[in-house]
Amino acid sequence: MPKKKIATVWLGGCSGCHMSLLDIDERILDVAQLADIVKCPIVDGKELPEVDITLVEGSVTSDEHLREILHIRAQSKTVIAMGDCAVTSNITGMRNYFNLKEVFDTAYVNAISNDTEGKVPNHIALLKLHEKVVPLQEVITVDFVIPGCPPNADTIFYVLYEFLNDRIPNLSEAKKLKYG
Ligand code: SF4
Asked: How many whole angstroms from 93 Cα to the centroid of ligand 1?
């Protein structure tokens, strides 16, 4: 079987899902036998080429994220939402209870312990944050979801390994199986 191409992407999340991905530890060698990791925020910031599988952490929070997820969908045969922020918006979506001005005021204008001199920094304004955070499936078709905050490393490995072997994962089987 020819090697597949994998990418991992980090949108509006805390990086905890990628930390969990790293917790597959030596099983990365099993992945490496079947696929090349062509883009990953931990490794480098290359443009996303056409890939077989993209694992996406985090929600869509801004114009930049929206552009990125649409590009990911166009470039990826399979898009996997990795973690609850990607699946439901979860922690990232907690700001949806407030309007954007309240969020900015709390974080930058009224916060006691910051060095922003009571102003929203220019680079934050440039992000063009959306009024509401949304999970991936509100803007693209998602092929598979891995729930959890963060998802268990064994589950991430199971799902990835199944897709790399052209099988559709069954999450209820994830805990029963051993690989490697
Ligand atoms: S699902 Fe949890 S661990 Fe993953 S990005 Fe969101 S808050 Fe972080």
From this structure: 11
Q: Does residue 49 have a cis peptide bond before it, meaning omega lies within 30 degrees of 0?
A: no
What's the Cα-to-Cα distance from 131 to each of 50, 91, 115, 118, 151, rounded to whole Å?
31, 15, 25, 21, 27
Query: Per CATH, the architecture of 4-94+132-173 is what?
Result: 3-Layer(aba) Sandwich (3.40)
Report CA(150)–ligand 1 centroid distance (Å): 5
Instruction: Give me the count of residues in the chain.
Output: 180
Q: Which of 94, 93, 87 is nearest to 171 (CA)?
A: 87
Q: Among 9, 84, 94, 136, which residue has the most ligand 1 atoms within 8 Å of its CB, making it the best to mutate? A: 84
Dist CA 54 CA 145 (whole Å): 12
- pTM of this prediction exceeds 0.90: yes
Q: How high is the pLDDT of residue 175?
A: 67
pLDDT averages per 10-residue partition of the chain, 180 residues? 94 97 96 95 82 98 96 98 98 97 90 76 85 98 98 96 97 68
Contact 82, 146 (CB under 8 A): yes
* Domain boundaries of the chain, sorted by first residue: 4-94+132-173
Answer whether 93 contacts ligand 1 (Cβ < 6 A).
Answer: no
